Amino acid sequence: MQTHPTNVTGIFCTGLWIFLLCCLLPSAPTAAAPKGFSLDFTTIRLGDETQGASGANMGIGVSKTTARSAGAPAGQTPEQGTARPPDQVTEQTAGQTNGQEKAQANGQVADAKPEITSVASVRSEGSDTPAAGKPDTAAATAPVVLVVGGIQGDEPGGFSAATLLTTHYTIQKGVLWVVPNLNFPSIIKRSRGLHGDMNRKFAKLDNSDPEFGTVRRIQELISHPRVGLVLNLHDGSGYYRQSFEDKLRNPNRWGQSVIIDQEALDGVFMGALGNEARRAAAAANSNLLSPQHALHVHNTKTAEGDREMEKSLSYYAVRQGKAAFGLEASKEFSVEVRAYYHLLMVESFLAQAGVKFTRGFALTPEGVRGALLDKLDVSFVDNKVFLPLEDVRPAINRLPLSKDAPAQAVTSKPIMAVLPCANGEEGQYCVHYGNRMITQIRPDWREMDHSLSGMRVLADGHETDAAFGQVLEISKSLVVQPASGYRVNAIGYDSGRKDESGELMTLKDFQPRFSVDRQGRLYRVEVYKAQRFSGMFLVRFVSGANRLTSNDPLPNAKDRLPDKPGQESTLGF
Ligand SMILES: [Zn+2]
User: Fold this and answer.
1) What pLDDT score was predicted for residue 378?
2) Given this model, what pLDDT does residue 546 score?
3) pLDDT tens digits, residue range 454-496?
4) How many CB atoms lie within 10 A of CB 320?
5) Closest CA to 481 of 504, 450, 515
6) How distant, in Å, are the alpha carbons of 47, 52, 94, 190, 341 from that of 162?
7) Which helix (H) or strand (E) holds 273?
8) Does pLDDT of 151 surpass 80?
9) What is the pLDDT of residues 268-309, one digit of tens each?
10) pTM score, two decimals?
11) Which residues contact residue 463 at a Cβ distance below 8 angstroms, ignoring those fewer than 6 apart?
12) Measuring CA to CA, which of 215, 279, 490, 525 is 20 to 30 A from 320?
């Protein structure tokens, strides 16, 4: 199933319900997440709901339903506080959560209908793995594949590939659990590890370690009785070779390899580790972009005395009796090429594990790039404020928000986060996407008015609804119909009037420097009731020339992913 149609205003895939499962972190949160902001890792469950929701006995199964319905008729916009109908629920999110979302979501568990539960997203925290010995009715079914990305924060190929599994893959048979952002604080800081190397913390770990809680939670997930295969995604330096060829190609490099701890793990699912690894490497090698990129299997023979590898996540998994592999793309490549090789390997392992899937993009570097860059958005205040970020300006000024809104932002990708800017002015918020900071939000703090869900408009002369959170595509003109007691402020449109309802607005009436996007086509239309903010929709002018501002050059898509090799590490893996 193509979950992300490319021909609409951009924002919505239809028919997907999202199950965002959240539990409170029992231990102290790791550093780097200011109060109210969570950077705990996310577990996203894909596949057969009845299997994946062995989580049901985890006391979870929560749905956060953010309408991202650019195309959805405003007339269907539900009243404040009610769940949206399935055809408006679109995007899986796994960003920050809060008590309110949890409460909403918990209320929806009982209502979840199987036919709309094609995507399950679990916020995995301490208490959401079942207690040992708890009966698990689904345990007899096919083993779950667990994919982990981002154990080291400066390896974007791995965590980008893992993210794509959650946003652009539909599992048709079997179950896939994905943790795309294991070391989320380090991802945000583009650091291998803010508190040392997390991949050396799986043998023993002092409970005073700031990452103790995170490591324990991923260990619980790995040792979950349903998990049968663990793939840990890395970006490594150079190219692994069994014998020395040159400085970049030798046994001490890690890039382009499938790593195993030993040749076999007897008696377990996919326990012929060497054979499975060679099969995955061969599958990727039949799709090489250059013969130089060939992948090799690297057996670290950990049990024979590799003191470093003994501390790794994958060897922990092996000790739990799980087939485990480290997948390494080379840091010599741009992010999309790294993710391309990761997905070739992952897809081979999924096939070997009996998991069937469809993918919503072509598996080429260009397809991967497109998928990584599409559907980038953030939503605030129950979608009263919605921002497409694919082509966002470096800053969004005077965005009306309630004080609690930034910590409750809902993002479209699990490696996105809204956080107070580290070095910015007080009260500014940075929107992060993996290793990149994509825009800065400067809020105009407002009390909220909840009496309205949208406005009536004349769009190119046709009367229709504009729901808050919607992106309205306009060819020529927009008129917002007056509504008694409310005033309209189109940002960048200067009529000199306090209320801009009733005005005929065209692209040339807007000052480009106020646009949300860098092409000067996308503008905010905000609605107020006295001093309170009621909501906003966006208008995108789809005809006419771009209206770039001179000091804001046309974004080059190539500049929008970190293409530079990540920080070098002698350990690599
Ligand atoms: Zn690594």
Assistant:
1) 97
2) 66
3) 999 999 999 999 999 999 999 999 999 999 999 999 999 988 8
4) 15
5) 504
6) 15, 18, 13, 17, 12
7) helix 273-285
8) yes
9) 999 999 999 999 999 999 999 999 999 999 999 999 999 999
10) 0.78
11) 456, 457, 481
12) 279
DSSP assigned state of 367: H
Kindly tell me if the per-residue pLDDT of 112 is higher than 50. no
Ligand 1 centroid distance, CA of 246 (Å): 21
Measured CA to CA, the distance from residue 60 to residue 124 in angstroms comes to 10
Distance CA(252)–CA(233), nearest Å, equals 18
Pick from 143, 28, 114, 119: nearest CA to 65: 119
Strand pairing category for 144-149 and 43-47 = unpaired
Residue 253 CA to ligand 1 centre (angstroms): 12
Ligand 1 center to 141 CA (angstroms): 32
* Distance from the alpha carbon of residue 247 to the mean position of ligand 1, in angstroms: 19
3-state secondary structure of 194: strand
Cβ-based burial of 57 (10 A; exposed 0-12, middle 13-18, buried ≥19) = middle
Element (H, E) at 221: helix 212-222
Q: Which amino acid is at 399?
A: L
The Cα–Cα gap between 515 and 396 comes to 9
Distance 62 CA to ligand 1 centre (A): 32
Report yes or no: 329 and 294 within 8 Å, Cβ to Cβ.
no
pLDDT value of position 495: 86
Strands 487-490 and 522-529: antiparallel
d(CA 125, CA 172): 26
Instruction: Please name the residues in contact with 266: beta carbons below 8 A apart, sequence gap of 6 or more.
Output: none
